Amino acid sequence: xxxxxxxxxxxxxxxxxxxxxxxxxPQEAVAIMGRNGMGKTTLFKSLMGLLPAKSGRIAVGGxxxxxxxxxxxxxxxxxxVPQGRMIFPTLTVEENIxxxxxxxxxxxxxxxxxxxxxxxxxxxxxxxxxxxGGQQQQLAIARALVTEPKVLLLDExxxxxxxxIIKDIAKAxxxxxxxxEITIVISEQVLSFAMxxxxxxxxxxxxxxxxxxxRADTDAARIKQYLSV
Length: 229
Fold this sequence. Notes:
single chain; alpha/beta; Rossmann fold; four-stranded antiparallel β-sheet; 10 strands; globular
């Protein structure tokens, strides 16, 4: 579903990603683990087209999107929930979700979205800026899902969120995979959340993938070593 091959990204003369390669299957979830500054957000911005690739290839469902603009990547099946959520604070919950339906035939929000995130149904007339961090995160995921993506990218989804909401988000992501043929790629520092959601875990360090494991074979102590400063 998502294929990344030898991806190199640079900020000016400074190389940030050094030949990153991985592939994901439909209905698979993978976690990219790593400390701050190791390349997680750079990777996600590059996958989304917000940072150009110096070399390498990115494909979704077999279609090469390496040179495509961000909005074209959305049309080809990538959705992105950025770090910090980036919802529209002055729009209602409903209006925020509808921004994801900009190019859809209907502006009606599918029932399954509110079924996945019941808290949003009760708050649909409330301004996005009045929601808690966890509720805003659920709103940002809902907005991404209405674009009907093949690949959902979530950058640090648990950052600044209370544990009970983290559990709700993990449950919703696992439910989404049962309902749709979707790949989920998460950048994360919380190992317990990654273990609840991801089938495979990668560790990124210095812009390189340095470790890969399946959930069943994960050596938690080893990954925690990578995550500790």
